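dumping this here so i dont lose it
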């Protein structure tokens, strides 16, 4: 139905593909005969294949235009206007900030908007304001959420990007950070400009080239160190990807720590929600690190997960780390711990020169609330994975049941069953017929051509009558026949009279007909 609606609804995907620079041609149109049944069926298949390509593309499937077309009721709200309302309300209480320009579509989230900011008394300094709605994994109370978001500005770590200001209310949150002209790690890999739209930057890169081995080692070690720090603090993250890693010189710094507090879905959720062994936020972080390492190595994301074979890499140590995270065996057994990855040869010999001491004090009460929130997030992930697993089993069963090979097997089995039932019914019919003949001939009558035989003794009371003693072996067989009983003799006479009946021996009779009317 969606493929038919695509031709009926005025949904313009041309702007989407102009921005993303992807070439996805629609099936050909037809001016004459476009209502023929064969053409409609063929075009429907082409449109369905067209939609399948869009929905399986990781970046396009998260695009607002695609989501609005597939589910207009859930995405009918204009989040840009809502974001502007919240930002304008914020400026009323904080007049020192000023909006320079909106940064349109620089992120992949529909419910998250960005604005380029400046401080009035420091006009040359540029900052980025991000506004985000609350997501489905928001389990903190409003009070704990507001306190935790404000606490983020006090976090100090050499590999966490500094937050200038952060606040939250019962429906959304607002965070201000310094703007980096260099951009993110993803901008470095794809050689993109930070202010360009997300689709234009990353959907179809012109040149695919990975980073150098030393960059892979250094950036990977820095990211693992900050993940280890957050895990030890009991702070849930789960939002690692290359666009959430800011570059500051030769140092990687993590972005968007507030996402897990707001309950926003992860960029790679559609991947790790398919594997039931990735059921903790620590495991989610490691799995996302595997995606990021693959992207740093090969300059593009993996085509499919799990990865069956890896292209040539700058080092065998890179491949060994990727194999421990992204292969089918790794996904079945579970993700390795961050501490184990740090001990692998790819990262163990990297020297970290930054001497800044990490500081992030979380009160005990908030730490307990974060722990409960993390457990709720993991529980919802486990339930979602269970539903996906059940759906995939059902889909496999239906596709197997509907396959041509299975249909042929069912036809053969049906034929065998029908033949077997026919044979069994024939045997049952013959058995009934023979039993009826046996019951009609045993003890009651004998064949016409055979002499009459004595009636067998009754079995009733057989246990009380002792059996007759056997004849002595030397005694000769009796030469006289057993005399027939009276009923057998009369029956034989009746049969002989019927056989000897002759029609000519009948006497003629005279009939007096009294049926005619009498007239007196």
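and the seq i came up w/
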């Amino acid at each position: 139905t969606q493929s038919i609606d695509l031709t009926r609804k005025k949904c313009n995907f041309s702007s989407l593909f102009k921005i993303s620079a992807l070439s996805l041609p629609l099936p050909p149109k037809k001016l004459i005969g476009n209502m023929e049944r064969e053409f409609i069926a063929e075009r429907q298949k082409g449109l369905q294949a067209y939609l399948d390509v869009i929905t399986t593309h990781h970046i396009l499937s998260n695009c607002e235009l695609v989501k609005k077309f597939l589910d207009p009721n859930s995405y009918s709200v204009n989040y840009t206007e809502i974001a502007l309302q919240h930002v304008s309300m914020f400026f009323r209480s904080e007049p020192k900030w000023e909006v320079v320009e909106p940064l349109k579509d620089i992120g992949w989230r529909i419910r998250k908007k960005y604005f380029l900011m400046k401080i009035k008394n420091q006009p040359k300094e540029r900052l980025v304001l991000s506004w985000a709605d609350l997501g489905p994994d928001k389990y903190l109370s409003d009070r704990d959420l507001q306190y935790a978001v404000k606490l983020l500005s006090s976090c100090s770590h050499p590999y966490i990007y500094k937050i200038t200001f952060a606040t939250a209310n019962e429906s959304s949150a607002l965070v201000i950070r310094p703007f980096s002209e260099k951009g993110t790690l993803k901008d470095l890999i794809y050689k993109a400009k930070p202010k360009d739209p997300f689709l234009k930057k990353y959907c179809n890169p012109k040149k695919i080239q990975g980073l150098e081995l030393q960059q892979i080692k250094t950036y990977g070690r820095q990211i693992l160190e900050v993940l280890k720090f957050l895990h030890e603090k009991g702070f849930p993250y789960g939002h690692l990807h290359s666009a959430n890693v800011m570059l500051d010189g030769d140092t990687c710094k993590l972005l968007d720590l507030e996402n897990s507090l707001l309950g926003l879905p992860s960029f790679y959720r559609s991947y790790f929600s398919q594997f039931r062994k990735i059921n903790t936020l620590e495991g989610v972080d490691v799995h996302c690190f595997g995606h990021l390492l693959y992207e740093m190595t090969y300059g593009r994301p993996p085509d499919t997960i799990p990865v069956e074979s890896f292209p040539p890499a700058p080092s065998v140590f890179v491949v060994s780390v990727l194999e421990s995270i992204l292969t089918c065996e790794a996904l079945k057994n579970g993700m390795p711990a961050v501490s184990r990855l740090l001990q692998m040869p790819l990262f163990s010999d990297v020297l970290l020169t930054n001497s800044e001491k990490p500081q992030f004090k979380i009160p005990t009460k908030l730490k307990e609330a974060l722990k409960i929130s993390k457990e709720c997030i993991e529980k919802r992930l486990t339930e979602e994975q269970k539903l996906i697993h059940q759906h995939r089993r059902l889909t496999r069963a239906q596709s197997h049941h509907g396959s041509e090979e299975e249909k042929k097997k069912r036809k053969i089995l049906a034929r065998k069953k029908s033949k077997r039932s026919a044979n069994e019914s024939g045997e049952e019919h013959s058995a009934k017929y023979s039993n009826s003949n046996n019951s009609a001939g045993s003890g009651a009558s004998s064949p016409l051509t055979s002499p009459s035989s004595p009636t067998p003794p009754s079995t009733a009371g057989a246990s009380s009558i002792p059996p007759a003693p056997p004849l002595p072996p030397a005694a000769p067989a009796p030469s006289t026949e057993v005399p027939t009983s009276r009923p057998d003799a009369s029956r034989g006479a009746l049969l002989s009279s019927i056989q000897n009946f002759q029609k000519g021996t009948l006497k003629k009779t005279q009939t007096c007909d009294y049926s005619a009317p009498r007239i007196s």
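The mean pLDDT is 82.
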